[in-house]
Amino acid sequence: MIHKLLVGFVSSTLIAFCGCSESPTPNSSVSPVVNVEDDDSEMNAAIAKAQETLSFFENNWKTMGSDAYNLKFAMPTSDGELEHIWFTPIKIEGDEITGECANDPENIPNLKLGDVRTVTRSDITDWMMIVGQKCYGGYTIRVLSEREPDVAPPLEFVDPPTN
């Protein structure tokens, strides 16, 4: 099975929080979707790390003064695969997380930018909180940035503080 990771949101978020007035020139060689195999050990480790540290996001997303905060949901596609889509959280209550779709999905016909969906914690595959030039979380973005440094966001990736 191939996982599809939607990465276009990262660049649009950076434009918004950096205060840039112009969109970057589209590069036809860079797709907003990256296909990742199920057995990709680096990506699986990144998703596991995001799950392990999700409590930091849950405890701080409303109070940390973030410039941007988002969660990545694994959503089933029409062809039986998973597409990982960024959502802006609206409500986190117990095991359920409700968010507004922050991307245009590639292969989920009944989901579009701005739609609201509720998932469980186990459906979360990444999270990020951007404060200034620092990105807390963003573990899948880190993996993709190492693989494609030319399109990596200009952020310092940091792990959440440990207690």
UniProtKB/TrEMBL annotation:
The lineage of its organism: Bacteria, Pseudomonadati, Planctomycetota, Planctomycetia, Pirellulales. InterPro entries: DUF2314. It holds the Pfam family DUF2314. PROSITE patterns: PROKAR_LIPOPROTEIN. This is DUF2314 domain-containing protein. Residues 40-146 form the DUF2314 domain.
